[in-house]
């Protein structure tokens, strides 16, 4: 069983930055690919960024590419999402998710992830 806990959300002005963290429990953390998704009110959950089990490859949605950077520290069982140049349209609940795979590319669809955190709210004011 894997548990995920997100942190780092908050309210910032447009153009600002936030760094989200996702702490994973479980001894086999290093075997899981991890993705960040976001869900705005009344909208579907969409892929934002993902990272392979060993951190060698990252994937980004077109809407965040060049502004967001995902990384992981397997020694700390934690993944990070650095978000820069934030825009009001980035406002959403951000959730991290894990799936046990070493394949590439990693899944980009929410239904292919088995474990989910509860999410952290990110609000960007204009």
Short structural summary:
The chain is an all-beta fold. It is built from no helices and eleven strands. The protein has strands spanning 4-7, 10-13, 18-24, 32-39, 46-51, 58-60, 68-73, 78-83, 92-100, 115-116, 120-125.
Please tell me how large the radius of gyration is. 13 Å
Number of separate helices:
0
Shape: globular
Unreliable segments of 5+ consecutive residues: none
> What is the ordering of alpha helices and beta strands?
EEEEEEEEEEE
User: Structural class, judged by helices and strands?
Assistant: mainly beta
Helical coverage, percent range:
under 10%
Distance between the termini: 40 Å
Instruction: Bin the strand percentage.
Output: over 45%
**Largest sheet features:** 7 strands, mixed
Number of strands: 11
Mean pLDDT: 95
Q: Could you describe the 3D structure shown?
A:
There is one protein chain. With 126 residues, the protein is an all-beta fold. The protein is built from no helices and 11 strands. The chain has strands at 4-7, 10-13, 18-24, 32-39, 46-51, 58-60, 68-73, 78-83, 92-100, 115-116, 120-125. The model has no long low-confidence stretch (mean pLDDT 95).
Topology:
Elements: E1 4-7, E2 10-13, E3 18-24, E4 32-39, E5 46-51, E6 58-60, E7 68-73, E8 78-83, E9 92-100, E10 115-116, E11 120-125
Parallel strand pairs: 2-11
Antiparallel strand pairs: 1-3, 3-8, 4-5, 4-9, 5-6, 7-8, 9-10, 9-11
